[in-house]
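Progress report, Aim 2. The chain analyzed during this reporting quarter is listed below.
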Amino acid sequence: MPRPSKPEYAGPMVARRHGDLDLHAFPGLEALPGLLHVVTTRELDLASAGPRAQPNLERLRRTLGLRRLLWARQVHGTEIMAVSGEETAPVAQADGLATDRPGVGLLIKQADCQAVILAAPQRGVIANLHAGWRGNAAGMPAKGVEFLASRYGVAPDELYAAVSPSLGACCGEFVNWRSELPEWFENFRVGENHFDLEAATRHQLEAAGVRPQRITISGRCTVCHPEFFSYRRDKTAGRFGTVVALRE
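Predicted structure tokens for the chain:
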């Protein structure tokens, strides 16, 4: 199989100015009453280390008008935690957060991994999932849908989903995929050693019961687009982020 080409970006994500920050958003999610979400850029390094981390996190919280901004210690697993907004960040070792409390922002930090927003604003419930290739192969997108159903009684077909900028099929090379990825993942192999992780996420969401027309994929590869941090490209520890919240 030939290596996938690097497509010109024409995805469903638009630039948005919030205060003095340049951010991105999905117009489809913006149209949902009561829902707030953004994707940050390299303008804010949200990594845990470094002198600017905490000031940048506080700047983001204030710009979005959130009461709290919470995140977890991400470990490429499938643990999901419900939060009330009273916790101290980082709230726990987990790769997904969910809440039904307005004014509480759920943050996923990224540098090639996906953030998968799940939202049922009409039910007052949201989640944000961290899905790198390990989490994707372990079924994290579907586990997020199942968590919202079991914890909050949200039916899968009530959900809207959006997948942030992340490692694209053009750059998603896994030379050890035969030993690292499960057999079913070969359905998403698009080159000799390349995989379409966005397609794998969409497949899991649809199989879990999310309506196809309610799933939005950014289509923007972090390696190819330097406005985002990319560990594969730069080998640095910087992180951008995706935030979702219920408006107060």
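The mean pLDDT is 94. The CA atoms of residues 131 and 204 lie 12 Å apart. These observations will guide the mutagenesis work planned for the next reporting period.
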